[in-house]
Every structure is written in C-alpha cells, then in structure tokens.
UniProtKB/TrEMBL annotation:
InterPro entries linked to this entry: Ice-binding_C (IPR013424)
UniProt source species: Roseateles toxinivorans
Alphabetical keyword list: Signal
Domain Ice-binding protein C-terminal, residue spans: 314-338
UniProt cross-references to NCBIfam families, sorted A to Z: PEP_CTERM, PEP_CTERM_FxDxF
Top-rank taxon: Bacteria
Keyword Signal: yes
Protein name, per record: Putative secreted protein
Signal peptide residue numbers: 1-28
C-alpha cells in the first residue's frame, strides 16, 4: 500500500488562510480613568473633587456632608478590574454632580481587517425624588444621569434620564436608549441589561480610542412644611436587581430573603413628617430605596458586569477568499489522490 502526502507548504497555506478568516485579535489598554465630584449647600461655594488614574490603581471620590437642614452625598469610583459607579444625592438646598470616565486604546493586532463590536452591561441603579413636604413656589428637586460611549470623538451610543418634581408635579424625560428605564412617579429604575454596539471595520494594525462615561447629578431647593400623606403603591423588582425585604432597621440583607426580578412589593400608605425634600441618581451604587415608613426594604444588585469587551471578527478581502478556496481545493485534490492510491 502506497500513500501520497499533500505538500506541507500547500497544507500550511490553506490552514493559514482559514485561520486568517476565523481568527481575531484585539489589544485593549486603559489610557485614562477619572472619578469626579462637585457639591454645594445653601447657595455656598462649590467644592470640586477629582481622582485620576495612575497605572494599576483605582480612582475614588467620596463625600457626605451636612449644613443645617441641607446635606449632600456623592460617590464616584472605578478600578482597572472593572468595578465602577457614580451616585449623586442631596436634601434641602443643594447642587451635586459626579462622574466616572474610562478611556481605552483598542488595537487590531491581527494581519487582516476586523469587524469590531463592543459588548457591555449596564449596572442597575435609579433616579428618585424624595418629597418631604409639599413643594411651594420656586421649590424643586431633580436628579438625572447619562451614559455615553464614544469611538474617538464621536458618540456611538448614549442614554439619559432626568426626573424633576416641583409645585406642578413630577415629570420624567429620557434620551438616547430609553429602554434602560422602568418606573413611574418619583422613582425610576435603571435596568441591568446588556448592549452590543457595532464599531465598524478596523483595519489591520489600526488603533482607536473607546471611552465610556457615566455622569450623575442631583439639585434642589426645598423647605420643611406640613406632614404629608403618601398613598399606597407597589414596587416591581427591576431586571438585574434583587431586593432584600423585612431586614430591620439596618437590614443590608443579612439574614434576609431576596426577591427576584419581577416580584411585586406592596408598600402601604404612610405619613411623612414635614421635612425638606431631596433627590438621588445612581448607577453601580444603588444604596437603599425607601419603600415605606419603616425603612425596611433595601435594594442591591446581583453582581457587577465591569467594563465590557471588544470582539473582532475578520473581514477577508477577495484575495484572501481566493487563497482560502485555492488552499481547500489543494487539500481536496490531495485527499482524492490518497484515496486512489489506497
């Protein structure tokens, strides 16, 4: 019995052509990362906070402070491992803003053009106005957030939400990808969802900057007034969340059961003592949601999705197709010869 082997060079050429079509390679390097914050109370001076990225480190700005009947809270943070978030909140007379921004340089390190996609997940959060006393003329509370993904200097995906309450009632406005939000009245949830963005064709050896930015804000002018009755309502656990229930004064989930997404929580009516109003916006750091007079329901998230990833799919040129087909034809010819020689 005599067998003819296919020529090693031809076999390697065909395999290489196949790998050129099926393989992908991308290098992503963090080149900038910032956490920011700014706040003022009772019309006073604004304090600005900034934490910038050094190699292999993290960024974090954190401030909780009160002055008279006003208070502010902010926390923006991130790390190279993927944890990140921003929260802005306040009560009384206040202005608060925060943000987290990550910039990565993405390089197509393969030898062929690649079709690139960016896959990432939104960390659950919320936009909430907490009405203490009825808001009078000139009084308001508002909160909002925005996500923005850019390739180079151009925005390729964004989403925003703003919730404002004043003497006329509460209005909510949304922009960009509005499917991130669910709720009503003075509470809207940021859902824990995944998104995929087409980055287009990236040539061999080409690099580009991909940035991800989350900003939050909370502002308000309010004063304490009469006690206020809050009507009974329900809260539906949003996608990507779990909620702890009946946890006692400090809760935090210890010893409590979790409520899965879709669970409806009945909140009874209750009186709110006359006090100043406030607002809150966050993603990545939901803290607690006050569902009723006992403060016994706490919300949290099930895991952190991190920054997301860029995937590359080769885009072969006609010559590459020809090389692949020719190489596969050679392998087929060699296989037929082997069968005849058996």
């Amino acid at each position: 019995m005599h067998r003819h082997a296919s020529h090693p060079l031809l076999r390697q050429t065909a395999v290489a052509a196949t790998l050129a079509l099926l393989g992908s390679a991308a290098l992503a390097q963090v080149t900038a990362m910032d956490a920011t914050g700014a706040f003022s109370m009772n019309g006073g001076a604004t304090t600005n906070l900034l934490s910038s990225f050094p190699p292999n480190s993290s960024v974090d700005v954190l401030q909780f402070e009160g002055l008279g009947t006003s208070n502010v809270g902010l926390h923006s943070y991130g790390s190279t491992s993927g944890d990140f978030g921003s929260r802005s909140s306040g009560m009384g007379v206040y202005q608060v803003s925060g943000g987290f921004k990550l910039v990565q340089t993405v390089t197509n390190s393969s030898a062929v053009a690649q079709s690139a996609k960016f896959t990432f997940s939104i960390t659950p959060g919320m936009v909430q106005n907490d009405i203490g006393s009825a808001l009078g003329t000139g009084q308001y509370v508002e909160a909002g957030l925005k996500f923005d993904v850019k390739k180079g200097s151009g925005s390729i995906w964004d989403s925003s939400a703003t919730l404002r309450s004043d003497e006329l009632g509460t209005t909510a406005s949304f922009g960009g990808d509005t499917s991130l939000y669910a709720g009503s009245g003075t509470l809207y949830s940021v859902l824990g969802v995944t998104r995929e963005i087409d980055l287009g064709v990236i040539n061999a050896g080409e690099s580009f900057e991909l940035s991800y930015e989350l900003t939050t804000f909370a502002n308000g002018v309010s004063a304490a007034g009469d006690d206020r009755w809050v009507e009974p309502t329900t809260f539906t656990v949003p996608e990507g969340w779990y909620v702890y229930g009946d946890c006692g004064a400090y809760g935090y989930g210890y010893g409590c059961g979790t409520q899965p997404p879709g669970t409806v929580i009945d909140v009874p009516g209750y009186w709110v003592p006359g006090m100043v109003s406030g607002s809150h916006a966050s993603s990545g750091d939901p803290f607690e949601i006050r569902f009723g007079p006992d403060d016994k329901f706490y919300a949290s998230i099930s895991g952190n999705p991190g920054y997301g990833s860029v995937s590359l799919q080769p885009v072969p040129e006609p010559a590459t197709y020809a090389m692949l087909l020719g190489g596969l034809g050679v392998l087929g010819w060699a296989a037929r010869r082997r069968r005849r020689a058996v």
